[in-house]
Amino acid sequence: MINLERLKQSRIDNNLSQEDMVKLLNWKSRSQYSKRENGQVSIGADELIAIAKILGYDKKEIGYFFD
């Protein structure tokens, strides 16, 4: 299971807002990202890889976001 608190904290530690993430992911609205970060919508594998890359993690380090 993805540790959403860890994901959120990594975003904050990188001084990125949810709006910044939306722009970097080329998504249309902040609610798309917010719903995932808050657990209302599941994060897909490709989405997690893209988010992790933005936050400075490579594929080998993606396990950091799992409990």
UniProtKB/TrEMBL annotation:
Any one GO molecular-function label of the UniProt entry: DNA binding
Pfam families: HTH_3
SMART domains xrefs: HTH_XRE
Residue span, HTH cro/C1-type domain: 7-62
Span of the signal peptide: none
Stretches that traverse the bilayer: none
PROSITE patterns: HTH_CROC1 (PS50943)
Protein's UniProt name: Transcriptional regulator
Lineage top rank: taxon: Bacteria
The species this protein was found in: Staphylococcus arlettae
InterPro entries: Cro/C1-type_HTH, Lambda_DNA-bd_dom_sf
CDD domains: HTH_XRE (cd00093)
